Amino acid sequence: MNSTLLTTMALTGFTVAFFHAAIPTHWLPFVLVSRARSWSRAKTIGVALFAGLGHVALTSALGLLVAWFGFQLDEEIGHAFGPVAGGALILIGAYFLWRQFRGQGVCHHALPGSEHHADEHCGHEEDHGGHLERELQESSLARPASDWAAIGGLFLMLTLSPCEGFLPVYLAAVQFGWSGFALLTTILAVATLAGMTLFTWLTLIGFEKLRLRHFERWEAGLLGVIFVLLGLAMCFLQHHPHH
Questions:
Q1: What is the pTM (predicted TM-score) of this model?
Q2: Most exposed residue of 92, 142, 149, 199, measured as fewest CB within 10 angstroms of its CB?
Q3: In this predicted model, what pLDDT tens digit does every residue of 218-237 receive, in sequence order?
Q4: For residues 201 and 57, what is the distance between their CA atoms, to the nearest angstrom?
């Protein structure tokens, strides 16, 4: 097994998932709803983890489709899969870098019950954290409701916004078969839930001065660099086991 490529793939997956969890939609709504409903820190983090499981589940299901497509392609082109998949990752990375250069960033879904269109979440010209706070106030999550209704809304908000940036990483795992898919899914779960727990907890105890909201501003550029590097690694470090 090509340990260098496997390590690169694993580190890439962890980096993408962990820093994706630093985006405001993954922790700020939980903190704001927690304050509005006077939840304890433990309950707030528990709700965040519950929603995070839905987020991971949908991303993994989409990743399963990517892996299945990759396996079919691998069967057809054999040893050429590495350069082809590597080239695809480089193109994806270039696309994200172009979005960063244009100031468009990565699109994120709107909160349930809000009147804002999802396209409004693609730009970085304004403070998205402040925008998210205003949107939360206009959404159904801020209206009088039971705790279960609030929890259900938060769960749907995160579940229906999968980590699209992680999906290309599944393509890199195709050459490692289903074991590679399982490894990446585990990394996705650990990194996402750890990141959400950390950033939610830090915000709850008042560490907002860390300016976590700025992670979103550079998310597209970070993904672009990561995918270009991973693509280059796949082009030069090939591994072709049987599935």
A1: 0.79
A2: 149
A3: 777 888 888 898 888 888 77
A4: 23
